[in-house]
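Quick one:
INPUT:
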């Protein structure tokens, strides 16, 4: 199989807080929203992300703890300053990482973690892992 795109769809109890957070804080654009399912466009590369409230009373929703969305950006320092100015608390401080990026994380609704980074050359101990 050669997929044209791939994107995550995360099951949540209410899509509105996730939609609003990503639109307001990350500039996402809503491309479909029927109330229980929302499809968001993120950036110019065609990345999309969906949230849905599964229909039916038997749906199991454990929250999004443990899920991290990674956002590669051109200028991580500018994004860090922008999100801090909006009052978003850091879940991980802005730093240079030996695995080859400079990044930080903020917490979103429902335990969702959002990691924002710009690539950097990796340290020698991590360079060998790149293919």
């Amino acid at each position: 199989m050669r997929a044209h795109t791939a994107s995550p769809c995360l099951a949540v109890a209410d899509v509105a807080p996730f939609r609003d957070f990503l639109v307001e804080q990350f500039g996402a654009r809503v491309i479909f929203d029927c109330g229980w399912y929302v499809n968001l466009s993120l950036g110019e590369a065609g990345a999309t992300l969906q949230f849905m409230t599964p229909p039916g009373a038997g749906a199991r929703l454990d929250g999004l703890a443990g899920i991290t969305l990674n956002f590669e950006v051109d200028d991580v320092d500018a994004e860090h300053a922008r999100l801090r100015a909006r009052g978003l608390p850091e879940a991980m401080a802005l730093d240079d990482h030996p695995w080859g990026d400079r990044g930080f994380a903020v917490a979103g609704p429902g335990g969702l973690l959002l990691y924002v980074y710009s690539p950097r050359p990796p340290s020698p101990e991590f360079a060998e892992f790149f293919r």
